[in-house]
Amino acid sequence: MSTADAYPKLIALTRELKLLQDAAALLSWDQETQMPRDGVAWRAEQMAWFGGEVHRRFTAPEVGDWIAASEAAGAEPGSDEAANVREWRHAYDRATRVPAELVEAFERTRAIAKSAWAAAREASDFAAFAPHLEKLIDLSRRKAEYWGHGGRTYDALLDEFERGASSARLTALFADLRPELVAIAAEALEREPFDAGRLAGDYPVERQQAFNREVAEAVGFDFAAGRIDAAVHPFCTGLGPRDTRLTTRYDVADFRSSLFGVLHEAGHGLYDQGLRGECHGQPVGEAVSLGVHESQSRLWENHVGRSRAFWETWLPRAAVHFPHLARLTPEDLYRSVNQAERSHIRVEADEVTYDLHIMLRYEMETAIFDGGLAVADIPGEWNRRFEDLLGLKVRHDAEGCLQDIHWSLGIFGYFPTYSLGNLNASHLMAAARRQRPDLDGQMAAGDYSGLLDWMREKIHRPGSRLLPEALIAQAAGSAATPEAHLAHLRSRYLGD
Ligand code: ZN
To answer: Quick check: is 265 catalytic?
Structure first.
């Protein structure tokens, strides 16, 4: 085989694997939105088959030869080809260390655990979920040991979601961030709270859907290439170059929950829709990391959706769907969505306390993987740390350690990327404002295309050409630090 054949072979193979992976993603989406309860056993077999098949085909020895031949051929630095080969090498070296049976067992276990978690959360019954969690932690630990690490199991898990992240750096980052957030929260919590009773009224699901759709379209989400469904846990998943699925959940007493869920997931969806479809399945056509993905969701949810300008545009439209809102002012809505509050649920937390929720999860995960914390001790440990961080007692596990879907999917090492996303979002927003001084004027007029174009060019289209930190630094002109985010929080929560 000549070296010239190797690269096209890799392109063809990864395209085929993507056909399989997208089919599996559709099955997973279906499980969370449509599948009847008793379908889970067979669905778990399907997921195990897809996971094993993709793994076997990607880890075949000839694939290693093709990657080595492509490396030897030496693509032009900075090209798509060079980035693809770099990423395939990284993925291949990790994947070939893990036996296919472990991949299958992991996929099977998590498909079952996901349904078990939904039932356990509903009943606030940790004991019902504990055996599934035990298995997933064990399988994840085994995977991490196969992948290898420099002494901390958790670092091998982090790498799956955020290239370049390490627990040493995250621990240092959180140690810096925590006192600043606690101080901002303490001051913000002393402010006169907005009377949420003023929003009281009926919010029928169909009207929430109509309003959410208007907003999602306005920020640029393309409904010819995407849709929104209901699910227990809001998420976004890409099923192909022109097929992006969002989910949200509805509270008929408060429209804000589904709206911000949609804005958040639409932020992920815009990234997905902005990737180069012709490179779908290649690393350069894929999102670079979760910390960058989350910067996009938090940007549209918080920097856009919780701004004064947004409510000046959107309160009149909201009042068409929910007429009782006509008695409120945009300033009322602005205050109602920027309220610091001690609360139990991460996805509904305000921006100041949000990262404290993440720090708790990070501490729990490192305690599980590197500190020997036993599954049976998770609820007690969670509740103790939660009270210490947020000053609230946890009354039951559904509002404590059972609230998030992540562990039921066997994804450990994912949570810290939410905080990286917050920092990246503020850093990118500040950079976009500097580079495009007319941005705020456009957004005040309800035109979000300038901001989306900037993200398309700087973040979406590059895909995984650069590693996450390098991409952010290239887009913004400097590496992300907590500075822009803390300035954003002070202005939102301690400003006028
Ligand atoms: Zn997200």
So the answer is: yes
Token output for 304: 């856009």
The residue assigned the tokens 């859907």 is 209
Instruction: Give the Å distance between the CA of 299 and the centre of ligand 1.
Output: 10
Q: Pick the catalytic residue: 87, 104, 160, 265?
A: 265
- Token match 């089919």: residue? 23
Enumerate residues 6+ apart whose C-beta is below 8 A from 83: 283, 284, 463, 464, 465, 466
Q: Which two tokens stand for residue 224?
A: 């010819």
Pick from 198, 184, 318, 312: nearest CA to 258: 318
**Alpha-carbon distances of 85 from 22, 178, 258, 284, 462, rounded to whole Å:** 22, 39, 40, 10, 15
Report the separation in Å between the CA atom of 56 and the middle of ligand 1, taken as the mean of its atom positions. Answer: 30
Give 495: exposed, middle or buried? Use CB within 10 Å, 0-12, 13-18, 19+.
exposed
Structure tokens belonging to residue 142: 């085994």
- Residue with the two structure tokens 């990246």: 424
Asked whether residue 146 carries a pLDDT value surpassing 90, the answer given is yes
Strand partners, 227: 245
Residue 285 and residue 241: Cα distance in Å, rounded?
9
Average pLDDT for residues 192-213, to the nearest whole number?
Answer: 94
For ligand 1, the distance from its centroid to the CA atom of residue 444, given in whole angstroms, is 25
Cα of 409 vs centre of ligand 1, distance in Å, is 15
Q: Domain boundaries in the chain? A: 3-148, 167-493
Tokens of 415: 């949570």
Letter for the amino acid at 446?
Answer: G
pLDDT digits (tens, 9 = 90+) for 336-356: 999 999 999 998 899 999 999
3-state SS class at 205? helix
Q: Would you call 255 helix, strand, or coil by DSSP?
A: coil
Q: Would the pTM of this model clear 0.90, i.e. be above it? A: yes
In angstroms, the Cα distances linking 196 to 201, 317, 333 are: 11, 20, 10
- State the residue for tokens 């590197």: 370
Confidence of residue 2 (pLDDT cuts 50, 70, 90): low
CATH number of 167-493: 1.10.1370.30
